[in-house]
From TrEMBL:
PANTHER family (UniProt xref): CARBOXYPEPTIDASE (PTHR11802:SF479), SERINE PROTEASE FAMILY S10 SERINE CARBOXYPEPTIDASE (PTHR11802)
Family per record: Belongs to the peptidase S10 family.
Molecular function via GO: serine-type carboxypeptidase activity
EC code(s) of this entry: 3.4.16.-
Name of this chain's protein: Carboxypeptidase
InterPro entries recorded: AB_hydrolase_fold (IPR029058), Peptidase_S10 (IPR001563), Ser_caboxypep_ser_AS (IPR018202)
Any GO BP: proteolysis
Record's keyword terms, sorted: Carboxypeptidase, Glycoprotein, Hydrolase, Protease
Superkingdom: Eukaryota
Pfam families, per the entry: Peptidase_S10 (PF00450)
Amino acid sequence: MSGMQDSIAIQQEQMVRLNNMMSTAKSPPGIPARDSTITFKNPAAKKFFVDGTKIPDVEFDAGPSWSGLMPISGAENETRKLFFWFWPANNPTDTKDLIFWTNGGPGCSSLEGFLQENGPISWSWGQSAPTPNPWSWTNLSHVLWVEQPVGTGFSQGAPNISNDDELAAQVMGFLQQFLEVFSELKGNNLWVTGESYAGFYVPYIANWIYEHPGLELSLKGIWIADPSLSYGVVQQEIPALRFAQANRNLFPFNSSFWAELQQISDSCGYTDYLDKFVTYPPAGQLPLVGTNGTFSVTRDCRIHSPIQRAVGVLNPVFDVYRVSDTFPNLWSVLGFPRSTQEFIYFNRTDVQDAIHAPHITWTSCTNTDVYINATTGAPGSDTSIPSTLSILPNVIDKSIRTVIAHGLADFILVAEGTRIAIQNMTWGGAQGFQTPIENETFTVKNMGVYGNTHTERKLTYVEFYFSGHMTPQFVPWAAFNTISFLLGRQPSPSS
């Protein structure tokens, strides 16, 4: 049984290593609250101040921050307001940068990103209580988490946008109002970041800022993780079967169902799509298969949802956001994606009072539409063209750096679909990457090979091992590397 004893000893060593990693964030007891790396002279800033020693259930001094509702325009009768939480950089040398963060959805709260991904306080799935986050992006920059668009989280007002140009205009209006109160941030470098549906949000916001000068921030680049970049057939249907086949131990279907899936894949043009069309460089524009000449997959060519439904029967807690999750499921204090928690943190009135939020029923993702039908005014959907087919090339060309990251255990949006979207995009005078994305090219210090990365013409693409949809949550050390690279703190995404 010596082999089993060795395994137990190695597991114990791993626990010690993990504790050592996490201890880097723990503050010694009795140390007074640290001073902020920035102060604001405008008296209006005082009403937004959050005392880091009085955030409910946070049993450590999180430091000073500012949060609350800010209107999207200076109009006296403006009713539309976005909720924000601003945290200063931890290091005085990092105060010339400002990271803007938004979650996706559409209609999902950026407070999810704050509490479970990249903020200074971490209360992730299964954690009994909040802890300091050693990989908080405030270790690199000021960070501004914003719940947008209108209709998301604590944000107030009636949604009235039908596309992401209108969304971007409202975000720019918010930022202008924000800078009037927090004017010491004027002139800072701005980096717009987000995940998931932020593949629409972030490029459109950045493009609007580039094309409408006047914001007193200097936009330098963007970072988007597991992003919506193209049509659903590209990022879900085409790569779905290959993904399941590559992870057969997590998709243990019987032979008859595998045969059924293979028939769909063959007849709809999915099976050899990546091998045939995703070449380096690409031979031309990549075709949109399985849609019968439209932009949506036909009923007969749906393969992603049948796979998800079938695996959910075999694994009752199957997580489309990270397919390696298995029974029993971990609860989330935000109620998403698991809802076995005792309470939802941001729905507590003591928490709302501490961060100057309205007393409303807060949800991680809204149950109502955040877009309207421009013709009727009724609830609607986003009419924007996917960013790789519209404005993202312009953003890449005008930015210092653009980073697209993707977790390889994500099934709601599949990494190979992102590769398709990139190879179908023209920027910097050429279509797609000209040379292949080499395996085992992304590394993390003290951990070794952690994925794949490739850079051409100011666009960097990174794929993370071990990560699902929310990369700063699942592999925070790897995501931190790529943000450090985005800001120019390190010469490569690898460390």
